[in-house]
């Protein structure tokens, strides 16, 4: 008896989430299809019922973040996109640049966890990454109510500071310095809201 459409959807979601976590932990190159499927509790053969290539899975894993783990993260951080305003932007910055987010390797945003992998990836994966950045910038623009080019520049700058600060902090072997970088980026970004 063939599996139901719902079973197939759940299995695919399990594979994608397994891959997203493993890519965050190890990077795209060091994760095999066997690792993804074992982590998902499935056999390798089932992979090809959902994806043709590991690159297709990479695209799905990055794309899944916005409405999957990213939506959970926004909720936990108190970010409510349906209630725009400076308070929502403040929550986004505080949560994104938090110690908890820095330490949550499995749940980190792909913009923090995978920038080098994405830069070397195919255009489809790069488009998924671009969509994450556009969503962040859009939240900042909507929250700040800025109109025109100056507002866009302000939103882009905040996004660059959030992502860049976390990428640098994540890359440092010295946890004390990493925490200083993270805190400095958070303080500076929040300070931009009162200017």
Molecular structure report:
With 195 residues, the chain is mostly helical. The chain contains eleven helices and no strands. The protein has helices at residues 5-26, 33-39, 54-67, 69-76, 86-96, 99-103, 110-113, 115-119, 123-144, 148-171, 175-191. The longest helix is centred in the last third of the chain and has 24 residues, at 148-171.
Termini gap: 63 Å
Percent range for β-strand residues: under 5%
User: What is the typical, i.e. mean, pLDDT?
Assistant: 90
Class by SSE composition: mainly alpha
Shape by Cα distribution: globular
Question: Topology as H/E string?
Answer: HHHHHHHHHHH
Number of helices: 11
Radius of gyration: 18 Å
Poorly predicted segments: none
Helix content: over 70%
Largest sheet, in brief, is: none
Which labels suit this protein?
71% helix; 11 helices; 0% strand
Annotate the secondary structure layout.
Blueprint: H1 5-26, H2 33-39, H3 54-67, H4 69-76, H5 86-96, H6 99-103, H7 110-113, H8 115-119, H9 123-144, H10 148-171, H11 175-191
Helix pairs in contact: 1-2, 1-3, 3-4, 3-9, 5-9, 9-10, 10-11
In brief:
Helices cover about 70% and strands about 0% of the residues.
């Amino acid at each position: 008896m063939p599996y139901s459409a719902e079973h197939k959807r759940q299995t695919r979601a399990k594979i994608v989430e397994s891959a997203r976590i493993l890519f965050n932990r190890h990077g795209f190159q060091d994760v095999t299809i066997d690792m993804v499927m074992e982590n998902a509790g499935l056999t390798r053969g089932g992979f090809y019922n959902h994806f043709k290539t590991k690159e297709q899975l990479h695209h799905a894993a990055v794309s899944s973040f916005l409405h999957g783990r990213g939506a959970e993260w926004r909720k936990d951080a108190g970010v409510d996109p349906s209630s725009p305003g400076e308070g929502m932007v403040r929550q986004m910055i505080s949560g994104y640049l938090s110690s908890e987010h820095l330490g949550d390797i499995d749940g980190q945003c792909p913009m923090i966890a995978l920038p080098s992998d994405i830069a070397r990836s195919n255009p489809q994966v790069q488009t998924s990454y671009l969509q994450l950045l556009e969503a962040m910038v859009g939240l900042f623009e909507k929250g700040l109510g800025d109109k025109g080019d100056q507002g866009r520049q302000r939103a882009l700058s905040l996004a660059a500071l959030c992502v860049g600060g976390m990428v640098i902090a994540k890359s440092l072997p010295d946890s004390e310095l990493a925490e200083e970088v993270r805190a400095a980026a958070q303080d500076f970004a929040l300070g931009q809201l009162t200017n």
